[in-house]
Each structure stands twice: as structure tokens, then as C-alpha cells.
Design brief:
Homodimer. The chain is 41% helix and 15% strand. It has helices at 26-40, 63-71, 78-81, 92-98, 105-116, 140-146, 161-174, 193-207, 229-243, 247-254; strands spanning 14-19, 45-53, 82-86, 121-125, 151-155, 180-184, 211-214. The radius of gyration is 17 Å and the shape is globular. The structure holds adenosine-5'-triphosphate (ATP), 7,8-diamino-nonanoic acid and magnesium ion.
Length: 257
């Protein structure tokens, strides 16, 4: 595997978490990485969801809510976490259009660069998969590239993942990204260990990217318990107990902190 670092200017550090599609596990993985960097590594952190759609602020289903509670960074106001919260559950391009909002990619990048300058590691969760558009011209991959941060693509461990993941990596590269890794997220029922390992090997060989491992399957507190900080504390404790043993993943993170 070629070591390919993609870094912001100066001391800016961050990570863009994307995926092969929507609903694969970006929020769970981003919250889990944040809990690890914040609680175990004691790293100064910022969390950012540039655009979320299909929710309202404060809804326990909103990514901004789940990132804040899942990371344990409850001192962060939820409003700081998400720049745009759009009602319609659509790709940002169409969600902006339907809400009659004139979206500016340049302004979003400016905000990203300011956030990167704040002497804290910036964890960004994209919306949907890697090719999801903010606008006619710009996608999630463009944002990761423009901000010069490494890209983590969350994908499924099971049948179908090889084509989805290899395609996603090729697309990300075509849009300029060089430092790319994969994390599997999915229930144990989705793939036997042997199958997930074989899928990882095919992806690594075909796309020349590291597959950092299969994160724990650990459902977050449901809507009924989403306001209970003890339920989130238990989720973090269980997540960290498993995640800290994923040495390939944690090593990859340490090299980019
Ligand atoms: N590792 C995991 N453990 C437990 N549940 C998971 C895991 N990964 C994904 N899920 C579940 O799968 C669903 C989708 O996950 P998640 O919301 O993290 O996806 P996403 O990629 O962030 O979606 P979006 O594109 O809407 O932002 C959720 O119900 C979530 O709880
Ligand atoms: C509403 C959903 N949860 C996401 N935030 C947006 C997903 C957009 C997916 C667009 C697509 O790939 O077709
Ligand atoms: Mg999400």
C-alpha cells in the first residue's frame, strides 16, 4: 500500500467520513471515532455535519444530535455541529433547491477552512455517499479534496460491497483525493468473518486502499432513550472497549492526528 498523506495547510488536521451510500454507518463511526479521540486520546476536537437533510434540529434522529450524544461532547451546542439542516430527506442539491436556498460551495469551504484553523482535530461527516451532490458541480468528494483532509469511506462488509467500495474509491480519486481508507460497518448477520475478510482482501487489492477493519455492531440508544445521558455513556463504554482493540484503525488515526 502506498503511503499517501493528504493534509491541510499548517497544523490543520481533520478527517472526512463518507460512505458508499446513505445509511451505511457514517454517524455511528464518526461518533465512535470522536469518542475515542476525545476520551482516550484527549484530543481537542470539533465535529461538523455540513449539511443534514430529512430532519429538524434537536430531533433525536438528527445526525447532529447523535454525533453530539455519541461522542460525549455535550458541551458543543448542537447548532454548532450542523451548518445546514434541511427538511426534505434528499441529496443536499435537491433539498436546497426545494427549500429555495441559494447554496454556495465556496462559502461552505470557507467555513471548513476556518474550522480547520481552530487548533482542534476536525471530524466531518458527509451526507449520503461519496458522489452525493451539494450542487450541480460539487459533491462530497470535492469537499474532502478541497479541505485537504484524509477520507474514510464507511462501507458494508457483506455481499455487494466489493463493487460499491471499489467504485467509490475510484470516484474519490478521480476528484483528487489521495489519502483514502475503508471501514466496514454492518451487523454480524451481514457477512461471516471469512466473507468479510475476503471482501476486504479484494478491495485492498483492487483499489489499493487499506481496509481498517469491521467496527463493532452496537446500536445507539433508540428514540425512547435518546435523551438519557447514561444510555449514551454505556454506548461509549462498549464502543471504546471494542474500538481500542482495532489496532490497525487506531494506528491509522494516530498517524493523521
Ligand atoms: N456499527 C453500527 N452499530 C450499530 N448500528 C449501526 C452501525 N452502523 C450502522 N448502524 C445503524 O444503521 C443505520 C444507519 O447508520 P447511520 O445513521 O450511521 O448511517 P449514515 O451513513 O450516517 O446515514 P446518512 O447518510 O443518513 O448520514 C442506523 O440505524 C444505525 O444505528
Ligand atoms: C436523507 C438521508 N438520510 C441523507 N442525509 C441524504 C442522502 C442522499 C442520498 C442521495 C443519493 O445517493 O441518491
Ligand atoms: Mg449520518
Amino acid at each position: 500500500m502506498k503511503p499517501q498523506m493528504q493534509r491541510g495547510s499548517g497544523d490543520s488536521k481533520g478527517l472526512f467520513v463518507s460512505s458508499t451510500g446513505t445509511g451505511v454507518g457514517k454517524t455511528v463511526v464518526t461518533a465512535g471515532i470522536a469518542a475515542y479521540l476525545h476520551q482516550i486520546r484527549k484530543r481537542k476536537l470539533q465535529l461538523w455535519k455540513p449539511v443534514q437533510s430529512g430532519v429538524i434540529m434537536g430531533d433525536p434522529e438528527a445526525d447532529s444530535y447523535r454525533l453530539r450524544m455519541g461522542s460525549g461532547m455535550t458541551e458543543l451546542p448542537e447548532e454548532m455541529l450542523a451548518t445546514w439542516t434541511l427538511r426534505d430527506p434528499l441529496a443536499p442539491w435537491m433539498a436546497f433547491e426545494r427549500a429555495d436556498i441559494a447554496f454556495s460551495f465556496t462559502a461552505l469551504l470557507e467555513e471548513g477552512r476556518k474550522r480547520l484553523e481552530q487548533q482542534a482535530f476536525l471530524l466531518i461527516e458527509g451526507a449520503g455517499g461519496i458522489a452525493v451532490p451539494f450542487s450541480q458541480r460539487h459533491t462530497m468528494a470535492d469537499m474532502a479534496h478541497e479541505l485537504r483532509v484524509p477520507l474514510l469511506i464507511v462501507s458494508s462488509p457483506g455481499l455487494g460491497t466489493v463493487s460499491h467500495t471499489v467504485t467509490a474509491v475510484h470516484y474519490a480519486r478521480e476528484r483528487g483525493n489521495t489519502d483514502i481508507a475503508i471501514a466496514f460497518s454492518g451487523p454480524p448477520t451481514m457477512a461471516e468473518v471469512k466473507e468479510a475478510e475476503e471482501n476486504a482482501r479484494m478491495i485492498e487489492t483492487m483499489a489499493d486502499v487499506p481496509v481498517l477493519g469491521h467496527v463493532p455492531w452496537l446500536p445507539q440508544p433508540d428514540r425512547a432513550r435518546a435523551t438519557e445521558s447514561s444510555a449514551w455513556a454505556m454506548w461509549q463504554e462498549q464502543w471504546l472497549a471494542s474500538f481500542t482493540r482495532m489496532t490497525r484503525f487506531t494506528q491509522w488515526l494516530h498517524e493523521r492526528e
